[in-house]
Amino acid sequence: MSRPARGGSGASFRSGLRQRLTRVAEAAVTPLELADVLDHFHPLRRDSADLRARIVSVHPETRDAATIVLQPGKDWAGHVPGQYIRIGIDVDGVRHWRAYSLTHGPRPDGRISITVKAVPDGIVSNHLVHGARPGTLVHLEQAAGEFVLPSGIEQGPGKLLFVTAGSGITPVIGMLRNLFPVTDSGVLDLPRSHDLDITVVHVAPSEPVSIFIHDLRALHDAGAIRLVAHHTDKAGRFAVDTLGEVIPDLAERTTYACGPTGLLDEVRTHHEGLGLPLHVEQFRVDTIVAGEGGTVGFTAAGPTVDAPGDRPILDVAEEAGVLMPSGCRMGICMGCVLPMTEGAVRDLRNGELTVAVPGETHPDGVPIQTCISAAAGDCTLSH
């Protein structure tokens, strides 16, 4: 009867001692936060103030694309192949956030990887592809996204079609690597994936710039997938309406598509017309309707910015030196949302107007996504 009492007393003593030591440590580092000081010495620790990751290695894929391998902190909750992460990285003293698909399934070493394609004038993408160095710490958010295979897909026969273009292959390669791991001895044909029937249609400008083309060919040669590689420099523009010719059993397959807006719109129209199941992941926003343009003012600080009607407010504000919240820059994560207290903006994806009228709309303003909204007249943001 005495042992539990002594054990409980010991636990109580240790808990009290821990609390007293914590208070002493907090007093010692004031006005800093204790968590921030601990993060300085052990940034990947559990219960860190912010989730971080360390760049382990950078592997070129093509002349303008590279795979970044990251070691996430101990609070990393894991991911499902096909999901994406947001990373925050400091470039020239400014922290930028971007979203990138994870290009591996869960790994035994606990590391994660993203593959980045450098885009013209892309601050973060060019920095990661051409300037990222092992040892660099980046900020990290937990994985998100619903572009994933259904749970238990491997447990029965399934026919899948992946239609990808350019960097749209990145979430798909994560799924494929999880289904068919590649080792030094070749592609593993696991029992859990044996009954899957997968076709991949991948469109790229040319073979030299086709990301993961060697991985896809290895999977094709091993019989894990059937690859249809379409390079527009030789074959011209890919015609979505020929999918039924290229894939005779198209009606029996569930399609996953990822790539530029133009391709995805065509695939949507094609599949809707035939009543076929389709899952879509869109990366970058393409302008469909341009607004009239105008000016963007800020209630707290910053200049009044001239904003054309065909560019996101986020981009023009940043170019004018305004420090803006941002995230994925494709209208998904809501990291760029600011309240508009007056004026009108146009959604660059579909042309829809959002209007804020003082005295009519909410006094705190109407939330808008600055990464996909262009000025449609003069407007004011609360920032």
Structural class: alpha+beta
- Beta-strand residue fraction: 25-35%
3D shape: globular
Number of domains: 3
Q: Which fold name corresponds to the CATH topology of the largest domain? A: Rossmann fold
Tally of DSSP β-strands: 20
**What's the helical proportion of residues?**
10-25%
Unreliable spans are: 1-7
Q: Any guess at the CATH architecture of the largest domain?
A: 3-Layer(aba) Sandwich
The main sheet comes to: 7 strands, mixed
Q: Distance N terminus to C terminus? A: 63 Å
Mean of the pLDDT scores? 85
How much is the radius of gyration in Å?
A: 25 Å
Instruction: Compute the number of helices.
Output: 9
- CATH level 4 superfamily of the largest domain: Nucleotide-binding domain of ferredoxin-NADP reductase (FNR) module
Could you please describe the fold and organization of this structure?
The chain folds into three domains: 52-140, Beta Barrel (Elongation Factor Tu (Ef-tu), domain 3), CATH 2.40.30.10; 153-282, Nucleotide-binding domain of ferredoxin-NADP reductase (FNR) module (Rossmann fold, 3-Layer(aba) Sandwich), CATH 3.40.50; 294-381, Ubiquitin-like (UB roll) (Roll), CATH 3.10.20. The N and C termini lie far apart (63 Å). It has nine helices and 20 strands. The strands form four sheets. Strands 14, 15, 16, 17, 18, 19 and 20 form a seven-stranded mixed sheet that branches. Strands 4-3-6-1-2-5 form a six-stranded antiparallel sheet. The chain is of the alpha+beta class and 383 residues long.
